[in-house]
Amino acid sequence: MSDAEPRLITDFNHFYERLNNMTVVEDYVAISTTGGGLQILDYQDPANPLYLSGIYCDPGYLMPTEVGVAVLSQTILNDLKVAVVDLSDLAAPDLHDFTYVGVGELWTWSSHNNLLFTFSHLDGDGNFIPAVEYFVLTVLNNQGRPQIAYSERRESHSFTAISHLWGERLLFHSWSRGFVIYDITNPFQPETMVENELPYAPCYMSADGRYAVVYNQLDYMHDLFNLIVLDCVGDEETPPLTVLSELNQEGAMHCRQLDNTRMLVQVGAINTIYDLTNPAEPTIEARFEMDGSIYPVGNDIWRLDPVNLDLYDGRNMEQIEFVSRYSKVGSIFDISQTGNRLVSANDQGGFDIFNLNLPVNPELDYSFLIPAKMVSLGENRAYVVTNDSTIVLYDLSNPAEPDSQSCIMYHNDRFGNISQIESYGDYLIVNNNWGYSEPIQFYDFRDPHHPVGISELRIGLDPVRGSFEVDGDRMITFASPDDSVQLCTDWDISDPSNPTLVSTFPIAKLTGRYPQGLSGFAVDGDYLHLLIRTLIHPRQSPHDYQDTAMYVYRLYDISDQNEPQLLDTLIYIPINVEAYDDPFVPELMTAKGIYAVIRRDKLGSIDIIEGWRNSSRRKASFETAQPVNDIIANEQFLYIATGRSISVWDMEDLLSTGNPDMPVVFPKTFMLSAFPNPFNSSTTISYSLPTSGRYAIDVIDLQGRLVTRLSDGWHEAGCYREVWDGGKVGSGLYNIVIDYNGNRSSLPLVLIK
């Protein structure tokens, strides 16, 4: 018999790891993200930004064009490439092919009116191969690929460069040439207008109209800088590139031009607006405190950090007012599905409602921008637990316009943190105990605007707390009345105001030479699936490094609530050596009938156990190539929530008794991940290949040098793992690079020793 493998139907993803930079196009904002691509946001109502669409592309710098935005990115081999994302249809952005615009390290870039300037540097070997620099002007037209208008390659004598484009002028500085102003009226033939070798080492420049402000480094060791105001036009008395004034500053700065006479200077979290009406004597117009990357656009002030995009009203710079926040990063921690609707909870980005009428193409009905860690879906309602342990009820009668109806506040010392919720008709069951003594509680939401607590789960005076599952009118949970034994408790909850204990039976000994504990359970219909962890060699002290454990699967027939029967026991993992917070710890996640789904480890390995009387077996094993946070199952599909996406796997053929050994159909998308990351010594790299072909998997350092080749050769489509041991290299940033079918994908790795 060959193991069957579930078929991946689709995966839907608009959750990203990090916000990098942004640009504004009319009433819309484009954000570049690490690991996810480009997000398009609708700011027609500035107080309520909406996610419109996204498209995958390499993270990079953004600039507006006639039809959308251009993305400038740098490959792991230091190739520079630019592409235009056509936003004519905001719901379906179109990424044109990339055009390579240079090689080497990008030192400076700037853009204006569909024209992009890039300056890059490629190191030599110090002997026979000279260092070179590339001076490139690219037209970002709307006819497909960007067009290089002018390029110049020359041996390099520069150690830094900086530039700024405005109007039909390019202000450029390099150590080899000093300051230069180019006339780029015809970008195919730029002309040098004026040069001046001023004794400055600028790190940032901005210009608009006549004047330019240069952020200049005076003393790197003592963190001293100054601002220089340059006259870029000149007149009869003042030649171009004349220094008009200098302002000394302490601390590294960024400066951005607001208009012809105003400049925003950022030093740490202190932002100062200078009035340059008299450039010989700049005056301070306003000062405010705000960290992150600041993008002033007209009267709007945008603030971007790795997690959030904030909008402020800057019409009165003396009193800037907060308008709205957009956040769409983090991990999907919880998913819930009822009928053709699925909701997901994201710890930084909120929760999202999906329509599953077409499982191969799930549609996003609505997205909430609140930090959510847990969600439970009922009939036309969703209960959401926020990061501060508040439960919010939403009416989903119209999923495109959900209505917040009520909330229960739990963020106080008495209740602690909510660890689980479950919808049951017009009621909600809450486990608010995570190291506290509060029992499982029942809330009546028949009046959705005024929920009422109606009962608690207790055996005698002892609270029942911990994980639970609801199946119809019964609830299975576990209790440890004397800390020596763990009991399975079966409850009749048809009357939520008075839950009735039907039966109990022991499932694990918590003490003794080989203590046991529950490592996950699931209930479906007449079957209870358990995964029991038995410590063979437990830690002797908190300073011990690892445990050795055995994992045993058990299947119970619970069709008779008064007399549950043990049907089978299967040694799932005979020996498992586990360090503290080890990712290789299995957990039973969900079940469908006689089938149990086990997350074999946190890296994305999934096993399906077929349980039956005295004949249980491992039915299927497969890889998701992403760490798994939650799994739910129904009659046809398995929904798996990873850190950044939800994948849908076809289980129908697998669960069919007529065809248990279904043919393998592999994932349709390329995925790459590493865990742990950052890491000490070694990390496991997981990747899925959508097609067969020749693949090379390399580890490369920041200079583009090969550190090691993990794999090279023909790979069949499927999921793979490689372990990289970085014990022989130093701490730092590396990249895992996969070359396949003329394409290249990379993932940064952080080694910390």
Provide mean pLDDT, rounded: 76
Report the uncertain regions: 1-6, 9-17, 411-415, 657-668
Rough outline: elongated
Instruction: Estimate what percentage of residues fall within beta strands.
Output: over 45%
Helix-and-strand structural type: mainly beta
Q: What Rg is obtained from the alpha carbons, in whole angstroms?
A: 30 Å
Task: Provide the descriptors you would attach to this structure in a database record.
Immunoglobulin-like, 753 residues, elongated, mainly beta, 1 helix
Please give a structural write-up.
It is built from one helix and 66 strands. The two termini are 45 Å apart. Helix content is 1%, strand content 59%. Among the domains are: 1-16 and 512-665, no CATH class; 671-751, Immunoglobulin-like, CATH 2.60.40.1930. It has 753 residues and is an all-beta fold. Strands 6, 7, 8, 9 and 10 form a five-stranded antiparallel sheet that branches. Strands 1-59-58-57 form a four-stranded antiparallel sheet. The chain has a four-stranded antiparallel sheet with strand order 2-3-4-5, with no helix packed on it.
Please sum up the structure shown.
With 753 residues, the chain is mostly beta strands.
How are the elements arranged and paired?
Layout: E1 7-12, E2 18-25, E3 28-34, E4 37-42, E5 50-55, E6 61-64, E7 68-74, E8 79-86, E9 94-95, E10 99-103, E11 105-112, E12 115-122, E13 132-139, E14 147-155, E15 161-166, E16 169-174, E17 178-183, E18 191-196, E19 202-208, E20 211-219, E21 224-231, E22 242-250, E23 253-259, E24 262-267, E25 270-275, E26 283-289, E27 293-297, E28 300-304, E29 308-313, E30 321-327, E31 332-338, E32 341-346, E33 350-355, E34 363-367, E35 372-378, E36 381-386, E37 390-395, E38 403-409, E39 420-424, E40 427-431, E41 441-444, E42 452-456, E43 458-459, E44 462-463, E45 468-471, E46 474-479, E47 485-492, E48 500-509, E49 516-524, E50 527-537, E51 546-557, E52 565-579, E53 587-592, E54 595-599, E55 605-610, E56 617-623, E57 628-633, E58 637-642, E59 646-650, H1 652-655, E60 671-675, E61 682-689, E62 693-701, E63 706-715, E64 718-725, E65 732-740, E66 743-751
Antiparallel strand pairs: 1-59, 2-3, 3-4, 4-5, 6-7, 7-8, 8-9, 8-10, 11-12, 12-13, 13-14, 15-16, 16-17, 17-18, 19-20, 20-21, 21-22, 23-24, 24-25, 25-26, 27-28, 28-29, 29-30, 31-32, 32-33, 33-34, 35-36, 36-37, 37-38, 39-40, 40-41, 41-42, 43-44, 45-46, 46-47, 47-48, 49-50, 50-51, 51-52, 53-54, ...
